[in-house]
């Protein structure tokens, strides 16, 4: 089975948790896109749900699939957010933001009663860090912000190269919020919770891709079948 089929299987398993009347956070990325498409099929068959997209790309997908949308200004909470991840550790800490949507993804996940992470099982790692950590920054004062980030890395026992993310056309990648992303190659994040706190305290950092204590469960699809970790 190819990777895309595994992602769709994970999405289908998460869809089993969705009930009529639910308010859903809709994640971003190739795995979350499968969820939106499958949800659209259920909506066409009569399921009543409403979704909050975590990116403009997901908004476009949801509209194409006929999933009704709302905002976090119009409703006061979400029942479930279903989203992908770049890495998942055994504590269900995550690295997210490979698709550049980490800020809205974290706002939506934090507003949800439950966050279900869907992924193929290559995303499951014993320790976070192999995937470069995305850090969303304000372009103003980036030199000072980068030095503060390096200091936070040193205090948390990690080090590595940082690079401003580029889009496919070679220009700087700009997030839906109008910010830039710095990707940090750290290899092994020994204490993700401390690093998350240290990065959050830096004024030029808008948000970072460490999702600590937000995921309630992970649905991992692999050659051996589906594994649900809670
Ligand atoms: C986007 C994300 C994605 O969820 C993450 O990059 C995983 O994407 P994919 O399902 O395509 O592997 O965090 O910001």
TrEMBL record:
Q: Provide the family line.
A: Belongs to the ribose 5-phosphate isomerase family.
According to its UniProt entry, this protein's organism is Bradyrhizobium rifense
Tell me the active site: 105
How does this chain assemble? Answer: Homodimer.
Annotated protein name in UniProt: Ribose-5-phosphate isomerase A
UniProt xrefs under InterPro entries: NagB/RpiA_transferase-like, Ribose-5P_isomerase, Ribose5P_isomerase_typA_subgr, Ribose5P_isomerase_type_A
Q: Name one GO biological process term.
A: pentose-phosphate shunt, non-oxidative branch
One GO MF term, please? Answer: ribose-5-phosphate isomerase activity
């Amino acid at each position: 089975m190819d990777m895309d089929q595994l992602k769709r299987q994970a999405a289908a398993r998460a869809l089993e948790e969705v009930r009529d009347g639910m308010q859903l956070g809709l994640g971003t990325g190739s795995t979350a896109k499968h969820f939106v498409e499958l949800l659209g099929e259920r909506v066409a068959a009569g399921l009543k749900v409403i979704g909050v997209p975590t990116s403009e790309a997901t908004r476009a997908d949801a509209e194409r699939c006929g999933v009704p949308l709302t905002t976090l200004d119009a409703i006061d909470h979400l029942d479930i957010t279903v989203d992908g991840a770049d890495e998942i550790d055994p504590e269900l800490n995550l690295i997210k933001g490979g698709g550049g949507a980490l800020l809205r993804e974290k706002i939506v996940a934090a507003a949800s009663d439950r966050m279900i992470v869907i992924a193929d099982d290559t995303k499951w790692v014993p320790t976070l860090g192999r995937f470069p950590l995305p850090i969303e920054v304000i372009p103003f004062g980036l030199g000072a912000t980068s030095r503060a980030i390096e200091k936070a890395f040193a205090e948390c026992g990690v080090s590595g190269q940082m690079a401003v993310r580029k889009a496919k056309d070679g220009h700087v990648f700009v997030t839906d919020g109008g910010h830039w992303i710095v990707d940090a190659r750290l290899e092994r994040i020994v204490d993700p919770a401390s690093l998350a706190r240290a990065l959050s305290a830096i004024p030029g950092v808008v948000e970072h891709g460490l999702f600590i204590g937000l995921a309630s469960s992970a649905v991992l699809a692999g050659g051996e079948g589906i594994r649900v970790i809670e």
